[in-house]
Amino acid sequence: MIVVRTWAVALTGLSGELIEVEADITQHRPDFRLIGMPDKALGEAVRRVMNACENSGLSLPDRRLTVNLSPASLPKQGSGFDLAVALAAVATDGRLDPSSLARTVHIGELGLDGRVRAVAGVLPSVIAAVSAGRDRVVVPADNADEARLVTGADVIAVRTLAEAARLHGAEVDDQVLTADEPPEARPEPAPSEPPPGDLADVVGQPEAVEALLVAAAGGHHLLMSGPPGAGKTMLARRLPGILPALDDEAALEVASVRSLAGRAVSSLSRVPPFEAPHHSATLAALVGGGSRRASPGAIARASRGVLFIDEVAEAPRSLLDALRQPLEHGSISIHRVGFTASFPARFQLVLAMNPCPCGEFGVVGGTCTCSPADVRRYAGKIS
User: Fold this and answer.
1) Residue 16: phi, psi to the nearest 5?
2) In degrees, to the nearest 5, what angle opens at C-alpha 183 toward C-alphas 180 and 187?
3) Rounded CA gap, 345 and 343, in Å?
């Protein structure tokens, strides 16, 4: 039997690379081997694929089956390769059209009953596929909306492995396509983010309002110092509302980061994002990371928008130092053994702090109990 080929996408940060999924069978003791540097989650695809095929009426050949993910030197993570692996394996005995498989990219995780589950990062995966010249992409039905945001992509949404196989010429009983079990409930879309507040609603604070306008006009970073309750957070949340609307490229980048972070994406938002991590957040939560798959942190999610850190004088010094390189270069790189993931980091930084530990220094009518040394030491935390 000739080697059967189809395609999948491996993501490293926001960058994706096409992976050739090739399958072959030989006259040896029945076995199923997945090679090509898969991680643990991808290595478990063998069991998922075998059960999904059996429960979809697409039993695999009773011979030694080898599926290779090429290039083997590129690390591959996650369960989004399941659909491509299953279809390549089924096609080894001639039940599917090899030419149809060879021109199609498949993305999706398989359930044991053959359902195709949604995965994170579909939007950047489809962008990578189209950029590489592969415009026909099969995705889970629950990811169809975000996949169709990519111009030039012929997106085909499927709910089951049997449905995907029939797309490539397999003869599958209708009874299999409409399984006895009810279809998996589609996850509720993430609640839409509230629109940014209107700066016109702010009463008083003329100096702070003018500072916001200057920052928005010139793309400047901003530090606000004032007592608790002065409105620092309220003002910061209104900055995205006076920033220019995102253009197509920026909106697609923001949506890609959201998709990679596992958030629902159904349309391109033109409002700059706003991220406000707590000042006690870990370094990994801020810059992103992960041992096997690098996920975007608050810095990447705030790209093209605003990153707001309140009570910044209480934040660890390491957290503030981690902002230096992204601010200088407009990107952030996460280095792990075997791969380096890069994310965009073009954001406006807005910081807020109290003027002293008790928050009353310089307040008219206030009763500050801090010594001059305490005030200097507190302010000196910001380098």
Assistant:
1) -120, 150
2) 165
3) 6
Q: Is 78 left (phi over 0), alpha (psi -120 to 50) or beta?
A: left
Residues 160 and 206 in one domain: no
Which residues are paired to 334 by β-bridges? 341
Q: Which helix (H) or strand (E) holds 222?
A: strand 222-225
Residue 295 CB-density burial (10 A; 0-12 exposed, 13-18 middle, 19+ buried): buried
Is 246 in the same domain as 109? no
Query: 287, 274 in Cβ contact below 8 A?
Result: no
Per-residue model confidence as pLDDT tens digits over 175-205: 555 544 444 444 445 445 667 788 888 888 8
Cis bond before residue 71 (omega within 30° of 0): yes
CA atoms within 13 A on the CB side of 89: 33
Residues 142, 91 within the same domain: yes
Domain span at residue 69 reads 4-177
**Mean pLDDT lowest for which of 26-40, 79-93, 110-124, 155-169?**
26-40
Q: Are 211 and 91 in the same domain?
A: no
**Mutual angle of helices 248-260 and 122-131, in 10-degree steps:** 130
Separation CA 244–CA 231 (nearest Å): 23
* Interatomic CA distance for residues 313 and 286, integer angstroms: 16
Strand bridging mode 116-117 / 105-106: unpaired
CB atoms within 10 A of CB 192: 10
Could you give the angle at which helices 82-90 and 45-55 cross, rounded to 10 degrees?
Answer: 60
Kindly report, residue by residue over 59-74, the tens digit of the pLDDT: 898 889 999 999 988 8
For residues 318 and 161, give the distance between their C-alpha atoms in angstroms, rounded to a whole number: 47
Q: For 82-103, write each residue's pLDDT tens digit.
A: 999 999 999 998 889 999 999 9
Q: Residue 33 pairs with which residues in a beta bridge?
A: 66
Task: Give the total number of structural domains in the chain.
Answer: 2
Residues 104 and 51 in one domain: yes
Same domain flag for 149 and 206: no
* Calpha distance 38→76 (Å, rounded): 5
